[in-house]
Amino acid sequence: QVHLVESGGGSVQAGGSLRLSCVVSGDTSKVNWLGWFRRAHGKVREGVAAIAQIRSSRYEGDCVQDRFALSQDGAENTVFLQMDSLGPDDTAMYYCAASSTRYMTPIEALGREHARRWYGWGQGTQVTVSS
Predict the structure, then answer these.
(1) C or N terminus of the chain, fewer CB within 10 Å?
(2) Cα 101 vs. chain centroid, distance in angstroms?
């Protein structure tokens, strides 16, 4: 069983930055992907970014627009999401999750039907951006 814990959220003004962290523990032997997702109030969950554990393939969701960067510290089993140029539309609960699927296209990983490929959802970390 995999356990994921997110942290790093907070309240910032528009244009600000935050760095989210997701610590992964437990049985990671079948984890092939780690991903970040978010859910704004009243909206469906959307994919933000994902990174493969093999070859380090990376995908970004439409919401990123070259503002976010995904990185990983393998030694610490931690994946980071550096978010810059934040705007009010980025206000959401941010979650990380794991996937055992060996290969995913960007749509499969982060698209509207992503849920069935991901598991181990953490409790989330709230990001609030004021204008």
Answers:
(1) N
(2) 16
